[in-house]
Amino acid sequence: MRSFSAGNFGNTDDPWFRVGNINVTTTIAFVGIGIVGLLVWMIEGPSRSISQNFWLFGEAFRGFEGVGTAGGGQIWRIFTWPMFHEAGARVFWVILMFAIFFMLGSQLEAKMGRKVYTSFIATLIVVPSILVTLIQIGVPMQGAVGGLRFVELGVLIGFGLAFPEAVFFFGIPARFLAAGIVVIEFIQTVADRNTLGLVFGFLLVATALLAIRAFGHAPDDQWIPLIPVPANLGGTAAPKAAKKSGGPNLSRPSRKRAKSNLSVVPPTDPVQDDLNDMEIDSLLDQVANEGLDSLTKDQRKRLEQHSKRLRKRDEGK
Asked: Nearest Cα to 83, choosing from 155, 124, 32?
């Protein structure tokens, strides 16, 4: 697994904004929301008089009155369920969950780019919520869903697919660990008789698999169906199967279009031709496959500098 240090505190290349020395990324923002939720959870006590207004509910569960999956018209629950932790949560496990979510989420966000990663997180929150709400209308279920636990599960699944070479302690591959935690999660929901949580868990796992593939970060997992997602939401066009050599499978017209969009023309200096072609073609292949948001700040800067240098050279002719 890639090393993780204090230097990775947020995606330093592309934060939404900064607060002092902290780069506020989507991952940092969700951890911050979780910490605020933890403070409210501590203050409100066992009554959970605040938290229960934000969870997704089925029928009566652990002493709380069933109000319907979306709260009987309280549509905000579809979006707010991750904010506050479940009634039976333990502080130690909640804090550990924050740490894991931060470490994995930061690296996944750095790889996907903030916009695509935010689209991925939003999909994990909204899609399973809407589906379980529709199911609940016809098939009432007992249970509740709340807290970052399920979002963290989706991030773990996404991380395992986006970093197929990553391993955790004892050399366990990330995707195997994700599969194991999914099984443990389902065992826990069955033991709790949390039918709503069980169905929601299945829907979230399916959503995470489909979303990470749709957003272009599970290219080697052809067994996952590819669902087209609009580019403005972070999706990419359905890619062709990768060649066995591992190289990109782009046609020449595709490369020419990508180069045209970035105002890059072929270099005329024969000494630099081979070097520039290799570097620029590699970056343009990445743009064509994953979009401009997949480039780091330094990569964008190299493309811009190369384009300016070529324009100046042409003007001097």
From this structure: 32
Q: Write the DSSP symbol of residue 22.
A: E
Radius of gyration of the chain (CA): 23
> In the structure encoding, which two tokens stand for residue 45, read together?
């006590």
State both tokens at 266.
Answer: 């072929």
**6-214 in CATH: which number?**
1.20.1540.10
Instruction: Indicate where the chain has its CATH 1.20.1540.10 domain(s).
Output: 6-214
196-231 pLDDT, tens digit per residue, is 899 999 999 999 999 999 998 988 888 999 888 776
CA distance 74 to 67: 9
pLDDT digits (tens, 9 = 90+) for 49-61: 888 888 888 765 5
H-type helices in the chain, by residue range?
26-44, 77-80, 91-112, 114-138, 149-162, 174-191, 195-214, 252-261, 270-290, 297-315
- Of 19-33, 35-49, 71-85, 268-282, least confident by mean pLDDT is 268-282
